[in-house]
TrEMBL record:
Residue ranges of the TM segments: 6-28, 196-213, 233-251
Example GO molecular function: S-adenosylmethionine-dependent methyltransferase activity
Protein name: HIG1 hypoxia inducible domain family member 1C
Transmembrane recorded as keyword: yes
InterPro entries (alphabetical): Hypoxia_induced_domain (IPR007667), Methyltransf_11 (IPR013216), SAM-dependent_MTases_sf (IPR029063), Thiol_S-MT (IPR052356)
Length: 265
């Protein structure tokens, strides 16, 4: 076991060595910044196809946020190659922000393909510091697939709040989300959405408890062997539950709506 672990660690270190070396030489970030836009351009085509109906639904209400000028001013943070442009309403004024300057030429291409939007400017900056955008100057902020790469999410959201134009919400538009939801009801809701997570945790706890209970009845079996068996069983349960969860989500999101014409929920 120890030997296998050592061999796997060694193989991983050898495979990752070029990345460490490039990072040490200060080149890794440059390579990623240079090549990521090409990857994203390719990825966005497939992703947009899969998400088209969702994006249409999400962006269909943008007009409701129009400012007093009668024009919608939109700020897209972490715009990438501009794959969201085609979902924006005609005439909306778009400012884009992204820390990677290499997206500029891809954005220009996207602007040319989406003449219905009025492109204002591209700012090279991270969402955590958007000082080039004035306080209360935009009607809507859009950010898709970005938060996972943001280092300081709290500061990012503070900046979003700062640049958004203050707006009175009508009672039916009021944000009714998790803020008022108690810990327990949130837990129940999340368990209902992804039942395999609590099942995995419960299975893990059960297997570990059973393994510990059986510890003193293990006869002449070595303690380390008993613990390894217990760990493998517990891990196996979690992996099994996660796999079932993924398969269930795929069924729920892609197979059921497509073949059984049931709305996604
Ligand atoms: C996965 S891409 C998504 C691009 C685009 N929003 C989309 O939906 O295809 C993530 C983007 O976030 C940008 N990004 C990373 N860190 C950021 C930060 N701190 N603030 C703003 N954008 C950031 C990246 O440069 C990249 O363009």
């Amino acid at each position: 076991m120890a030997l296998t672990t050592f061999i796997m660690q060694l193989a991983l270190s050898i495979l990752a060595f070029p990345m460490y070396l490039l990072n040490f030489l200060g080149l890794w970030k440059w390579i990623c910044q240079k090549w990521f836009p090409y990857f994203l351009e390719w990825f966005a085509v497939t992703y947009n196809k899969q998400m088209a109906s969702k994006k249409q639904e999400l962006f269909s209400s943008l007009r409701e946020f129009e400012g007093p000028s009668g024009k919608l001013t939109l700020l897209e943070v972490g715009c990438g190659t501009g794959p969201n442009f085609k979902f924006y309403p005609p005439g909306c004024r778009v400012t884009c922000i992204d820390p990677n300057p290499n997206f500029k030429k891809f954005l220009i291409k996207s602007v040319a393909e989406n003449r219905h939007v009025q492109f204002e400017r591209f700012v090279v900056a991270a969402g955590e510091n958007m000082h080039m955008v004035a306080d209360g100057s935009v009607d809507v902020v859009v950010s898709t697939l970005v938060m996972c790469s943001v280092k300081n999410q709290e500061q990012f959201l503070r900046e979003v709040y700062r640049v958004l134009r203050p707006r009175k919400m009508s009672s039916e538009n009021q944000w009714s989300a998790d803020e008022d939801e108690g810990q327990l009801s949130r837990l129940i809701r999340k368990s209902r959405d992804s039942p395999f997570v609590p099942v995995g945790i419960a299975g893990f706890m059960t297997v570990v408890s059973y393994g510990l209970y059986k510890l003193k009845y293990r006869k002449d079996q070595k303690m380390s062997i008993h613990l390894i068996h217990m760990r493998v069983a517990a891990q196996g349960f979690v992996v099994g539950a996660v796999t079932l969860g993924i398969l269930y989500s795929m069924y729920k999101d892609y197979i059921r709506p497509r073949f059984f014409s049931v709305s996604k929920k």
